Amino acid sequence: METRNIMIVGVGGQGSLLASKTLGYLLLDQGYDVKVSEVHGMSQRGGSVETYVRYGDRVYSPIIDEGEADIIVSFELMEAARWISRLKKGGQIVTNTQQIDPMPVVLGVEKYPENLVSKMRETGAKVDALDCLKLAGEAGNIKAVNVVLLGRLSHYFDFPEEAWEAALKANVPEKLLDINIRAFELGFNAAGED
């Protein structure tokens, strides 16, 4: 199998590392060679976080270069737009519609860009946008945005729901498992803005 590339992007503290760890576990469990690389930046101060997940028969490097990502999973709308150059032509973006103001916007120096979903689609990207924060709240914890996104992402794989649930069980603390399984199901069943 040709190597496939998934880039997970967000802002520090949103749970992108748990999402990449869970996805990596799932892919290993399905028999793929998997490489995961995390770039934290100023993540603990709300800065950009990016994670690369590459899988296939044999993967030699964890890095995804310009135009190589098959899928970008984004926890925040502007992060999806920021990394779109890494997406393959006609690639898929799965994004939370949440907007987190970066420091220049907070300081009033810049404005948060408008119509980002439309602008990303104008580049030829396929964009699946979903209010994951709302769905995480419905699941019982707004911190479950990451698992709502995994539920939505699962549409782009041919793995059974039980495999995703096993990956969650292996990576999520038991006391939070029920909330996370609900979050996954809400993400899976939600009507996105395809």
Describe the SSE topology:
Elements: E1 4-11, H1 16-29, E2 33-39, E3 48-56, E4 69-74, H2 77-82, E5 87-96, H3 103-106, H4 116-122, E6 126-130, H5 132-139, H6 145-153, H7 161-171, H8 177-189
Parallel strand pairs: 1-4, 4-5, 5-6
Antiparallel strand pairs: 1-3, 2-3
Descriptive notes:
The protein has 194 residues and is α/β, with parallel strands linked by helices. The protein has one domain: Pyruvate-ferredoxin oxidoreductase, PFOR, domain III (Pyruvate-ferredoxin Oxidoreductase, domain 3), CATH 3.40.920.10. The chain is built from eight helices and six strands, in the order βαβββαβααβαααα. A six-stranded mixed beta sheet has the order 2-3-1-4-5-6, with helices on both faces. A hairpin with an 8-residue loop joins strand 2 and strand 3. The longest helix has 14 residues. The mean pLDDT is 90.
Question: Notable features of this structure?
Answer:
Pyruvate-ferredoxin Oxidoreductase, domain 3; single chain; six-stranded mixed sheet; 23% strand; 194 residues; alpha/beta
What does this entry show, briefly?
Helices cover 37% and strands 23% of the residues. It has a single domain, classed as 3-Layer(aba) Sandwich (Pyruvate-ferredoxin Oxidoreductase, domain 3), CATH 3.40.920. It is built from eight helices and six strands.
Q: Looking at the structure, what is the overall shape?
A: globular
Counting DSSP E segments of at least 2 residues, the number of strands comes to 6
Average pLDDT, all residues: 90
Sheet/helix structural class: alpha/beta
| Helix coverage percent | 25-40%
Biggest sheet record? 6 strands, mixed
Q: Regarding quaternary structure, how should these chains be classified?
A: single chain
Provide the succession of SSEs: EHEEEHEHHEHHHH
Through-space gap between termini: 27 Å
Strand content: 15-25%
Distinct helical segment count: 8
Lateral strand order in the biggest sheet: 2-3-1-4-5-6
Q: Can you identify the CATH superfamily?
A: Pyruvate-ferredoxin oxidoreductase, PFOR, domain III
**Low-pLDDT regions:** none
What is the total number of structural domains?
1
Radius of gyration: 16 Å
Report the CATH C-level class: Alpha Beta
The CATH architecture term is 3-Layer(aba) Sandwich
